[in-house]
Amino acid sequence: MSGWDDLYPLLVLPSWVPGAAAGIVSMYLIQRVIFPYFWADLRYLLKVLIYGLRVERYRLQGRIFTILDKFVKLAEKQPHKPFLIYEGKVHTYQDVDRKSNRVAQVFLHHGALKKGDTVALLMANEPDFIHVWFGLSKLGCVVAFLNFNVRSRSLLHCVSSCEPKILVVGADLLGTLEEILPDLQKDISVWIMTKDSTFSTVHTLLDKIEAASDDPVPVNRRSANNLKSSVLYIFTSGTTGLPKAAVISQMQVLKGAAGLWAFGATADDIIYITLPLYHSAASLLGIGGCIELGATCVLKKKFSASQFWSDCKKYNVTVIQYIGELCRYLCSQPVKEGEKNHKVRLAVGNGVRNDVWRDFLNRFGSVKICEFYGATEGNICFMNHTGKIGSVGRTNFFYKLFFPFDLIKYDFQKGEPIRNKHGWCEKVKKGEAGLLISKVNAKNPFFGYAGNKRYTEKKLLCEVFKKGDLYFNTGDLMVQDHENFLYFWDRIGDTFRWKGENVATTEVSDIIVMLDFIQEANVYGVSVPDHEGKAGMASLILKQNTLLDLEQIYKQVVTYLPSYACPLFLRVQDKMEMTGTFKQQKFRLVDEGFNPSTITDPLYFLDNSKKAYVLLTKEVHEMILSGKIKL
Known about the structure:
The chain is of the alpha/beta class. The protein is built from 21 helices and 30 strands. Helix 4 packs across helix 5, helix 5 packs across helix 6 and helix 10 crosses helix 12.
């Protein structure tokens, strides 16, 4: 017993230890109750700080280590690691580096391109999109990504607005090229990704790439010493009609590429990209993010709901990209056995509804949904780093120091921010919807749109809270709750979102009024139950002594508009309602929707199975609401 007696004093804890332990537990419980997101916020802010310090170091050094520089270094460091997997074929970092060198060599010797020249790229998702993009970037060119869904007049507008020296077209988009070639500016050199051509004025690229050297071009061609220098043009459809070329700077590319890292992705991840590469989500966040990590990307030509999970299992995918519609499509697929039998751990994207979010998690397992908010041309970004369902992100005092923003009161009738008697804008209270605006300064600049100073200026708000201040108008309404979570509420102005794309109402109405029997067209978006975004609807006024020709309307919209922009519903009215400022009245039309039980005007529905507009009866309406008719 004497031995235990000797040890007993050693086993008795000092009197202060229980008190200290109780204090620590109490502090932990208080933190969990009063500051439940403290550690998640701290981790996220540290990542923001690390990124900010890196960018500041580039600025002080006067030499930017770009995403392209990082890719070249990775091709040296890990040459045999898969960078792209496309249709089962592996393209290593070295493969893509050498192929892009060949592209650079072709245009160096045949294209007469100078550093800073613009080249437009009209290609679908395929490895050659990236080969051409990287190859041109190695020559110091600004690359303009064209939306391959855009046709005819809109496409010609996109090409001319970015003033390219060269237009490169993918082999599967020669039909689109044929439509615009007669009206294309003669000083634009056209190259197609084939070995031969039926067009007399068009150059072939594939044969020249195969014959070219894969030696790297001089590094000084791609070197960048300014974070604000332009590197890409990515087209965005805003509130003013035709698509606009958003200027993407080196700073924005670096920000976009850091997204996957900020959400916790690593070099060991395999990222699945099904979104189109002309979107900033796929190109900057996806491909750029993959390079930032040194990871592997599985590239899909086009999203397929039926093949999605089988692809994820086949390629051991761990990170997926989405838009809200994509998640809904996956949840709408027939249930199969083993749907949770995959390795996907992160899903990064935006626009998913609360109910779809929950359905997705319940059905496909413990995937962390990483929702974010950010406009292509914008200077503000939110990231939902806590996983709060429905939220696009969370803010706090420190985040607003880095990225100042506010939610202000908005007049829906006038279509402009509300200003008080002193001429200043007013902030909304927590829980109220307000227009999201972000401060424009040296740290958070707005680069605007290529070749369009007027549209650039229209996106800016001056004298908001005090004289001389300047803010970027996102055009989005948001709500901030009492826990500082942010929620997307709606778009303002003449834009709505459908199938993951912004649809500009003025562009759609301009196409419709080209028909000789249409006097006026008022285009707007209407909500459809269980669908993301809003479906297009057009209220039409016919010219006197003319008849409605549904066949002509169908032919017009499918020929000149992307599929997602074609109005699903038509309403024929005798008179167009106007606002007090002589603008088309949309609010009552939006509220009334497309219900034939409450609307006495003739209604029509775009039935894709019949390739025609058909009468929207109560029976058809019920079939749309029940999901029997797919939109």
